[in-house]
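=== RUN LOG ===
request id: a7f3
mode: sequence -> structure
chains: 1
length: 100
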Amino acid sequence: MGKNRVGDEIQNKQIIFRDYVIGYTQEADLYISTIKLQVPQGSNAVLVKNMYLSCDPTMQFLMRKDESPLSGSYKYIPGSPIYGFGVAKILDSGHPSFIA
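=== RESULT ===
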């Protein structure tokens, strides 16, 4: 991938949470969506590409509608991207401390 400039449109993938899970999480409970993103001109925003994502058993509690040990935590919302920890590469940046 060539050097991007602030304002360039970049394609990125996200994992979307389809609906609340009953039992164990299965591949059908999630889907991959490709989106186009850009850092607006004059913005201090940073755009990253996920290289590796953490996927651990505690995430399934965030996918359930019922009360769970993590009920005080933020639950995943159906139709929204899942979130978690990972390793990313900076693709575009309007912030002087983060260079693409």
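=== NOTES ===
The chain has one domain: 10-93.
The domain at 10-93 is CATH 3.90.180.10 (Quinone Oxidoreductase; Chain A, domain 1).
=== END ===
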